[in-house]
Amino acid sequence: MTSRSTTGSISGGVLDAERYTIRSGLAVVINNSEFLGRLRLPDRPGSLENEAEPLEEIFRDLGFKTILLTDVTKENMENKFSEIKSNLAKKIEQIDCLIIVMLTHGNADSVYAQDQAVQVDSIMSCFSAENCAELILKPKIFIFQASRQLSPNSGAGIGYEKVVQEEVRVSEGVEVVRIPNEADFLAVYSTALGEKSFQQTESASPFLQHLIDELKNMGVDDDFYSVLTRVNCQVMQFEPSHDATKDIRQMSCFVSHLTKDLYLNMTHD
């Protein structure tokens, strides 16, 4: 375990605020539909036009800058994340909220790039307090449309060293504020741990369809927790049309380390 000190300026008002202030945001939608043959994964036809493109459009309508990536390798993904962090560090870009969406195959603890599995924790840690100081105290949302079935093969991930806490100096002569490395993260999963995630070739998956619908209808006073709770309710009631799976149900879920209320609709500010 290690700890690193990052010098910055954070006012008490930011720490004590009841809701995140979001004036600018970036949403990165990664859609992997085709995979290297050695992975023995089926293609995901229809995902780009039925899920990724509509989701990107929704985030753009909410006021976010958007990036859509298709069939990316692990290296492609790492390079894009490094570019985002570099732009933040150089003050080329300002982001008050980061959203990363991955539409792909997965297992209990990993999701698939085009060429290999990457651990979910390692993807999220790219933007932790230790690895991306510019996003400290800002919401970081990760949305995974992928199965989470248990597998003896956890997949190769991006190695990282987890830190216990991050130090941020408020100003000279003022005590250090310690920010947990996991603070201000929100992980959203299409299905519960150990379960398969439904995928439909002629329409969006039930999870993404309901998420897209709820984001479209999201009012100015709708916090994102409420949106996700409504999505959970809708996904829970989805009944597959195929006889072999008609008795199977899916339960989407989210794990929040957010510290304030979250409102995403910047177009109504």
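the 2nd protein, sequnce then structure:
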Amino acid sequence: MYQAARTVAASSSSRLHSPVAWSRKSVQEGYYDLEAGETERTPLLYVRDNGRYRAKSLHRANDPNRVHPVALGLMVALLVFLLIGVVIGVYLLLLTVQRPWPVSHPFFLVERPAWWQYPVALEAASLDRLAVTNVIVLHTDSEDCLDQERCVRYLQNTERSCWAAQRDHIPYNFLIGGDGVTYEARGWKSQHGFVDLPGRNTTLVVGMIGNFTDRQPAEVQYAELKAFITESIRRLSLSPQYRLHGAVNATQPSRDGTIALYSQLERWPHWKGFVARDQP
């Protein structure tokens, strides 16, 4: 009996000195009893660890840099909607770009690397602006080319002769052959190479392959020129308010001023007359 009394007293003393008083029922059910005190502010969680019981804090420190998943999802959705809006806006803008005429003839382009596969790369001054405002059309005053093989040979020979004579590249931005195909020379992003033509930084120079002083080019060449102008506007490389010009030889105006090439171009929209050349 004395031993039982000592056990009860020890148990009571332990409860008095412990902030948490455990009961058999609470242990079995997983709850705890908290003896409130001035120094205890955080409730303790009863957990079982390898057959022993320990206390664990219920409160966790909040991370100030942690982003809530809902907020993150809303931000991602907003960015997606903004991107879709930009794409739709650009598409609608392209639809509103005025085309100079309905084009039934498709645009055919042979890029420079397809006809000039030599180590000397194109080195030409770049245009300062994305969309230029002028197109100058002139003939090459050479033999015609009615198929791609002959047109490619003409471009290669012209490139070689220009490089041998002046250490410079073919001066045209583009050439249009009698096969109804556009051949890239200096392209949309480089200045033309004609020192006697104005507006090197605002102009695309297009050469019609052949001699058209006394006769007009084939209809397919005119159709391809229209397709080229439309494609240049579509690529935002030519202003929709562009100006179309012909080139007049200042030393021989009677020869180049009235060549058959311009008899049809003078009736086209955006025609603004002739520009003078100093060289034949």
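The longest strand covers residues 238-249. The two ends are 134 Å apart (CA to CA).
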